[in-house]
Amino acid sequence: MKDIAVIGYGGQGAWHCDRIFTSDVCNLKGTYDIRDIRNKAAAEKGINVYASNEAIFADPTVDAVVIATPNDSHEELVIAALKAGKNVICEKPVEMSVASLDRMIAAANESGKLFTVHQNRRWDVDFLAVKQLAESGEIGKVFSIESRVHGSRGIPSDWRCEKAYGGGMIFDWGVHLIDQMLQIYKQKIIRLNCICSHITNKEVDDGFKLDLFFEDGATARVELGTYNFIAMPRFYVQAENGSAIISDWKHKCHVAKLTKWVEKDVTPVQNAAGITKTMAPRDSLTLDEYDLEIPNSDAHDFYRNFCLAMDGKAQQIVTHAEVRRVMQVIEAAFLSDEKKQMIEVNI
Ligand code: NAD
Known about the structure:
alpha/beta; 9-stranded mixed β-sheet; 5-stranded parallel β-sheet; 31% helix; elongated; binds nicotinamide-adenine-dinucleotide
């Protein structure tokens, strides 16, 4: 069992503490938050509260720390923890620029300690269903994926509203959705276009539409909205031999697999202005429709992998190279939005 302390006892710090409590691979050593009210809340739950972050770093029994503070503070805390000889899990987004991430990676390499990022939405079953469908080749090569999350309550009314803290939805949710997409598409990105929305917040993005264009012709749309009172499907996938859709978080992945390209008698669709055979839906003579089983997933596997990797018994699941690639996309996305144009990239 590894001993872990959590820095920052806000929403996500408390989530980590709960997770570590029920973990089969690590113990919770304690937490510290710069706000007394949060330290009090931790103490009331029976959690050991340290006197400071430095007290955590100085405790030789702490094997690793989780950094669960607002985004602008990650670099300083991660580097301090690594320098103190601790292994580190940093919350997403790792930081706000590639340059900042590079300094963190350099500190990790120098310290010889493990440094990873909590990209926990790699364990989301909707994402896993699409990833497994793409990898299986069940409906042929996937050439287009649309990944969307639509809410209707604007940005949470905390530091996420302010640029200085690393607010905005690209950093908050985009980082998950881009990470997921790049777990499916490993090929090179050659162009991207991003449009941010500012419906409820002028300072930071409250949503975005990001289009990625890959070297082999595949495309991806990653979209997030916080002002959508009707949500679009979570995933929509097109492949050489079929399509797939996940309508909602709780729904299974529905697949329509082409069994025969040529159709004999297409029943036309009629509406007020005319009829169409081209756009008429296919029937079961040429299409096989079914739902995929929900994939198995256990988010505790993140900590299981981290503890094994600390002992050199496994490769860390969330690698520096993967985190860097996502950060490169985020930087280019902001540039594209600022310039209001498509950006040529090599990512
Ligand atoms: P929060 O505001 O609820 O909590 C942050 C806490 O950190 C606050 O209590 C604050 O007092 C404390 N803090 C700030 N600076 C500190 C410092 N230097 N030392 C110690 N404590 C400090 O925010 P949150 O929602 O918990 O988000 C924290 C981080 O977790 C962010 O990076 C966020 O993006 C991430 N997060 C990840 C997920 C996920 O699914 N992986 C979900 C939510 C949040």
